[in-house]
Design brief:
The structure holds three protein chains of three kinds. By secondary structure, chain A is mainly α. Chain A is built from 23 helices and six strands. In chain A, β2 and β3 form a beta hairpin. Chain C is mostly helical. The chains are: A mainly alpha, B alpha+beta, C mainly alpha. Chains in contact: A-B, A-C.
Chain lengths: 871, 262, 89
């Protein structure tokens, strides 16, 4: 503490350890001269290290894998999507100025539906979460005392997939029409018979790519946060912002896997012609609502939790009070995170679900609202006995809490099912969730002001910040409160009762005020980056988390030594020797700390640059853009078909090539020898990453199998057999079971051989695995060929993907499994090549980790086989 | 056994006294009133309290004896302040309010869900099938008559059996406080009882495509006598004209859903 | 060598159990008592899965926390599947 603590952001100079009230011993340390030297020095280091180009060059931003750079990229990109989604919202508000007839106003009916859908999707997916994850990327490693995330290149990959998925969504507007079925994408409107445009397919594929980005990011953050905390920093002691991110990422891991299943099925319906969501499947609509809301409800907390974390941090800093009931606060959040997976049917109260389900989900819904009461009260009581400074970040957080209280109370209305019946599909819902979600945005904007000096090393203009808040808060309430008043307006229409028009006009004016407030912010931040006042290490009095102990902006490898909390207070140990440079935080910016930084740097060289994540992003973009040219298993007609196919093939080659290049490239992740690793001691980072990924894959396959079970139950479990030709017999499945089991065994043998350094056995068993896998796929291909062309009385046209719902579930679920096998075979091939050159002997980890994947694929088959062949 | 009996007694008690009864509009309005008053009161109290505290403890306010307060230290291991008791009391109060409110409305949910039984309606229940399709509503009467206007008698329970012929719609008549999803391949049931004659408008409440904004239908609540007269003159669907000339059949034959689970 | 023996023994067990599943169907139990046979077949699958997870993937020898992560994913989808199927029954 101490040195910079007394620095008021607007006060200019730090007067050193003026406030020795903290009771920490090292307060008498070197009075550091104000900000300038520290910043100078460290940015110097920042620019020159590790072949990472200067931050003024474009190349730097294409190759960087450093978490702080990636955080900045996330922030900038998400703000771009905020503008994108915001402009769409303003177009809608203009259209809603008065009730319109079709074709009146600036948006036609289809354009309006596109705007509605894209606004929701862009704001929820491409703005809110990534904005929060900009902060998470930048701040979480600093708060837990890590040099970077566990897998820096995967982090960059997450970003590039995110960016390119957003661009893909943008492209979809130019392919006829972007998706126009609402952000909830209810079936069967979402299938080509109702939304035939290629752009609609592209929008769905953009979401798939976005989910891929999220999944990679989740694995990365979970591994990092569980295994790379500073010594003495237990999970329980994590700062609250980091806590919220931890829970958010856990929810993301499982929730987004369910969404991925839903989107893959939808993509398959659109591209390959399966019939899950087709009008002919009576349970299709209900299946989508279940899958979507199983994801959708946790998603509410996924976007809100980081905002809650920002609120907790800023409340503590700007009131100068530690949060009241910290343990209860954390406990409440854990409870919410768990419960969030058990409330999804409250979005479906008016569907054909039965009364028992409604009752159960009403109860769980009340249950999940209660922990939030506790969190709100904890924040409010933290104000008491505070030394509250109404700086811009606090104004936004405080405003966010007010908005969240309104959003929460109006949400209780929806919890009463009888009221929900009438509110469903009206502006009450719109107003409620905007109060909650945009209330969350409010806190995140506060976070942007809060961490701006840390990220840029410059102070924003406080006056303009307050102007922004005033415009924002007034604009917000003018925009959303009238929606409660005229709640009877149906959602997503532009023809409404004309007596509501004045209220909608107020809302439109509020919308423009809210939108223009961001112009003030952009101007303020843009100016401040260049000529804002230089910010000290810690411009906020009473800030206590680790990011404020290091220079603004932090040096490339963050800390001047190894962060350590073992004595209850952050200090940086000299990482070249055990002789603890226990000077505490004071040393941070002083000469001693700098020395430690240099020595540390030589010992643990961490890589920070790779171009391949970017190239994978480009490849995926091209692949999916190419894939959008398919419908019902064939390419669109005409010359464009060839173009799409070309894009698909080019993209596949680029993606695959860059993935191989990325694997081959030497790259050193951060070192974890000095970290706190509970509860995953003894599970190496890559292995833990693999396990966490597999957990999400469990949900993916589980959701596929669950979808199968659901439509089969809806159809009549045993009547289902009428949908399947007699030619569909267990034998090919049994043969494939034998093949896969044997291949699993041969992978185990390969691992043992690698341990015992027997090259012949290693190569032999890898080759065996490969051959068995290929045999599996060949057998499957033969079986499918046979089934496609059955010719029986019941199935005169054969039994292909679109014959009926049973064939769709069979081909798609086992097809997804087959794709997993194919991916495994590519990896096997790569390992055979490397093993032939002598790799893995005495170093069996890569084979073990591959084995985890391969055995998982085997296990999935163990369930697919009885479900799709026997029962 | 005992608890079952107790719960049952409680339900009966609730249903007979506190739980709102009447038409769906009455029920809805009563509950909404209570929620609005309570919600506003709670919101005002909580927000006023937090604004007051924030003002009182502003940095220049001088309301705190700094020597008695332990401020956070830079670099400390994160920890909390006390105050758990106060937190718990407030939390419990809010929990009681929320849980009792919802429990109270649950009785009404049961009432709303249990659409009137045959005995209550005197054995002549009126069931009208509602079919949504892009972008119109079709009402099918027991005798097979189809119409684009929903006609129903006043003061009589009307059951609606709702489905869709194409995409996901939602059928709602705000004036009667009746609403339910119209899902292809599924059937949802709801009911209403109109207190007065007059006309209302039904809307679609689920985005269903380009014509969603205009997917409305007229709902005409008629005197029972007038309704019976009108109804007795209707004929099954493909008749070319209806006596009342509401123009329903101008649009030709309808496509009905193939897979409705009856 | 013991580990290799263990792996081999498990492989044999897996092979036999897979065959047993088909045998249950061949013997006609499915048409006689569908749900009993259903239960037997699914339990056999679960046993096989536990063997693979526990030994081939070494989950038995990892910290319990890893098992809980996997269990979390499994419980989530089971909740989805059963609640969804129940809601339309």
């Amino acid at each position: 503490m101490s040195d910079d603590e007394a620095t008021r952001p607007d006060g200019g100079a730090s007067d050193g350890h003026a406030q020795a009230d903290g009771g920490s011993a090292e307060a008498a340390g070197n009075p550091v001269t104000p900000e300038v030297p520290a910043v100078d020095h460290d940015t110097g280091g920042f620019f020159e290290t590790d072949g990472l180009p200067d931050s003024a060059s474009i190349k730097r931003w294409l190759v960087t894998t450093n978490h702080k750079d990636v955080g900045i990229l996330y922030l900038a990109t998400s703000l771009f999507f905020l503008v994108f989604g915001g402009v769409l919202a303003l177009l809608m508000r203009i259209q809603l100025w008065v009730p319109r007839a079709a074709g009146e106003g600036i948006l036609g009916p289809v354009a309006y539906n596109q705007a509605v859908s894209a606004h929701g999707l862009l704001m929820v997916f491409w703005f809110l979460s990534p904005f929060a994850f900009g902060f998470a990327n930048y701040i979480v490693p600093l708060q837990i005392g890590a040099k970077d995330l566990a897998f820096p290149r995967l982090n960059a990959l997450s970003y590039w997939l995110y960016l390119f998925s957003g661009l893909l969504y943008g492209v979809s507007f130019f392919q006829g029409s972007a998706f126009s079925g609402g952000w909830t994408m209810y079936a069967p409107l979402s299938v080509p018979s109702f939304l035939p445009s290629i752009g609609a397919t592209t929008s769905v594929l953009a979401l798939v790519l976005f989910v891929a980005s999220v999944t990679i990011g989740s694995v990365n953050f979970l591994t990092t946060m569980h295994r790379m905390r500073a010594k003495g920093l237990s999970i329980r002691d994590l700062p609250l912002f980091t806590w919220t991110i931890l829970l958010t990422v856990w929810m993301m891991l499982f929730a987004f896997a369910a969404l991925l299943a839903a989107l893959m099925i939808l993509s398959s319906d659109r591209l390959l012609g399966t019939t899950y969501f087709a009008q002919t499947n009576d349970a299709g609509s209900m299946l989508w609502t279940h899958l979507f809301w199983f994801f959708g409800h946790p998603e509410v907390y996924i976007v809100f939790f980081p905002a809650l974390g920002v609120m907790a941090e800023t409340f503590q800093t700007f009131t100068g009070r530690r949060i009241v009931g910290r343990k209860w606060f954390i406990g409440a959040m854990i409870l919410v995170a768990l419960q969030s997976f058990g409330v999804w049917m409250h979005h479906m109260f008016l569907t054909s679900i039965n009364l028992q389900a409604k009752t159960l989900f009403m109860a769980t819904t009340i249950g999940i609202s209660l922990p939030f009461d506790l969190m709100v009260f904890a924040l409010i009581y933290t104000l008491v006995k505070g030394d509250i400074r109404f700086k811009t970040p606090f104004l936004f957080s405080f405003g966010a809490l007010v908005l969240f209280i309104v959003g929460g109370i109006t949400g209780v209305f929806l919890g009463a099912v009888v009221l929900d019946y009438e509110f469903r599909g009206t502006y009450w819902v719109v107003a409620h969730f905007h109060y909650v979600m945009v209330g969350g945005v409010t806190a995140l904007v506060g976070g942007l002001y809060y961490w701006f000096p840390k990220i840029t090393g410059r102070m924003y203009d406080e006056f303009l910040g307050k102007v922004h808040f005033a415009m924002y808060f007034v604009g917000f309430n003018l925009l959303y409160f009238p929606m409660f008043v005229v709640w009877e307006t149906p959602r997503r229409v532009f023809a409404y009762q004309s007596s509501f028009a004045p209220w909608h006009q107020i809302a439109t004016i509020g919308g423009f005020l809210l939108g223009s407030s961001f112009l003030v912010m952009f101007y303020n931040l843009y100016r401040s980056v260049w000529d804002g006042e230089i910010a000290s290490d810690n411009p906020w009095e009473y800030a206590s988390t680790a990011e404020w102990t290091i220079p603004s902006p932090p040096p490339l490898e963050n800390f001047p030594g190894i962060p350590d909390y073992t004595d209850g207070h952050l200090s940086f140990r000299d990482d070249s020797a055990d002789a603890a440079a226990d000077g505490g935080v004071v040393d941070t910016a002083s000469g001693g700390g700098e020395l430690a930084h240099e020595t540390g740097h030589e010992d643990h060289h961490v890589s920070h640059a790779s171009i391949w994540p970017f190239v994978v992003g480009v490849g995926s973009f091209l692949t999916l853009l190419g894939a959008s040219g398919f419908r019902n298993g064939s390419l669109v007609d005409g010359g464009m078909g060839g173009v799409y196919l070309g894009l698909l093939l080019t993209g596949a080659v680029v993606t695959l090539g860059s993935l191989v290049a990325m694997t081959v490239e030497p790259f050193h992740g951060p070192d974890v020898t000095h970290s706190e690793k509970w509860p995953f001691d003894g599970v190496e980072n890559t292995k833990l990453g693999m396990w966490i990924f597999l957990a999400s894959d469990v949900v993916l396959f589980g959701a596929f199998i669950g979808s199968y079970a659901f439509v089969r139950v809806a159809y009549g479990w045993q009547d289902w057999h009428h949908l399947i030709p007699a030619a569909h017999v267990p034998l090919p499945g049994l043969i494939n079971t034998y093949l896969l089991l044997t291949s699993s065994f041969s992978v185990v043998v390969a691992m043992v051989a690698a341990q015992k350094e027997k090259k012949g056995w290693l190569l032999g068993s890898l080759v065996t695995t490969f051959v068995l896998g290929v045999a599996f796929l060949v057998n499957k291909a033969l079986e499918w060929q046979h089934l496609f062309h059955v010719h029986s009385e019941a199935f005169p046209q054969g039994w292909d993907l679109s014959t009926n719902i049973a064939s769709s579930t069979f081909y798609l679920t086992t097809g997804l499994h087959g794709a997993h096998v194919a991916v495994g075979l590519l990896i096997t091939l790569y390992m055979i090549v490397r093993a032939a050159r002598g790799a893995y002997l005495g170093n069996d980890e890569p084979i073990e980790y591959f084995g985890l994947y391969w055995h998982f694929v085997d296990i999935v088959w163990l369930f697919l086989f009885p479900l799709f062949y026997i029962l | 056994m005992l608890s079952n009996a107790t719960v049952w007694a409680l339900v009966v008690l609730l249903q007979s006294s506190i739980v709102p009864r009447g038409s769906r509009s009455e029920v809805f309005n009563q509950i909404l009133q209570v929620f609005l008053w309570l919600g506003t009161a709670v919101g005002v109290v909580v927000i006023a309290y937090m604004c007051w505290k924030a003002y009182k403890y502003r940095a220049s306010g001088g309301h705190v004896d700094e020597s008695a307060v332990d401020r956070p230290d830079l670099g400390e291991l994160p920890q909390g302040s006390g105050g758990g008791r106060k937190l718990f009391v407030s939390f419990s109060m809010s929990a009681i309010i929320v849980v009792s409110l919802i429990a109270w409305t649950y009785g009404t949910l049961l009432f709303v869900e249990e659409s009137p039984s045959v005995e209550e309606t005197g054995g002549d229940e009126l069931v009208i099938e509602v079919v949504g399709s892009q972008f119109m509503w079709t009402f099918v009467y027991p005798n097979g008559h189809e119409s684009r206007t929903l006609r129903a008698p006043v003061d009589r329970e009307v059951k609606l059996r709702v489905t869709s012929a194409d995409v996901f719609h939602n059928f709602g008549v705000p004036g009667l406080r009746v609403k339910t999803d119209a899902i292809p391949g599924q059937q949802t049931d709801t009911w209403f009882r109109a207190e007065e004659t007059g006309t209302h408008t039904a809307h679609c409440y689920e985005l269903c495509g380009s014509g969603h904004s205009y997917m409305d239908a007229e709902v005409r609540i008629m005197e029972q006598q007038a309704y019976e007269e009108w109804y007795s003159n209707t004929t099954p669907s493909n008749a070319t004209a209806t006596p009342s000339g509401d123009g329903a059949s101008d649009h030709g034959r309808l496509r009905l859903p193939t897979g409705v689970n009856a | 060598m013991t580990s290799t023996k263990l792996y081999t023994a498990i492989y044999v067990v897996l092979f036999v159990l897979a065959t047993a599943q088909v045998a249950v169907e061949r013997a006609g139990y499915l048409s006689e008592a569908y749900w009993a046979a259903f239960a037997v077949i699914m339990v056999l699958s679960a046993i096989k899965a536990l063997f693979v997870v526990g030994y081939y993937q070494h989950l038995k020898y990892e910290p319990r926390s890893v098992s809980f992560v996997m269990l979390g994913g499994l419980l989530a989808v089971l909740a989805l599947t059963f609640a969804a199927a129940y809601s339309i029954s």
